[in-house]
Amino acid sequence: MAPILTRFARLSALVAIAFMGATAGAAEPPKFAGMAGDFSPIDPPEQIATPNFQDKMGQPVNLDSFKGKVVVLNFWATWCPPCIAEMPALDRLQSELGGQDFAVVAVSTDREGIKKSAPFYRRAGIKHLTLYNDTRGNLLGAFQGKSLPITVLLDRDGRVVGRIEGAAQWDSAEAKALIAHYLKEHAS
């Protein structure tokens, strides 16, 4: 009888370890509060078909080109004071974490496109964010953005894992912990 109990105990322990491992990736993301609202996780993640937007040369870009990276997708405009307030933090975040696994994609919704956003980048000293524009608001509409700024967090598969409306301190320890959570979740 003892060998059966011992095997049962080992099996139970293995099942418990496997279960803990399976649920560890499904842990709740860390809390992150913005100035007007909190980060709202989306579970299960949503796949959204997205239209193209433009790079600084006016060439089409699609979010598919960022697959494999966790992306902070931020919508902003030069006429939006909360957007302007958070841009330096987004720039610092890209400077610190941007690379093979992570990117900040800040998309201007200014109707005048690069004519408005490029001078703003120069005046504000934004050096690490690439200029992107969504002059028609199609990309913002795909994410059901109703006000600015709005930031959507995408996982490595390009799925929406959460969002926050309003400005946030994106270079804070809390923001970095949130990003680290999603970087670890599906690490390659």
From TrEMBL:
Where in or outside the cell?
Cell envelope
Q: Which residues form the Thioredoxin domain?
A: 39-184
Q: Tell me the keywords, alphabetical order.
A: Cytochrome c-type biogenesis, Disulfide bond, Redox-active center, Signal
So which residues are the signal peptide here? 1-26
Name the chain's protein: TlpA disulfide reductase family protein
State the organism named in the record. Dongia sedimenti
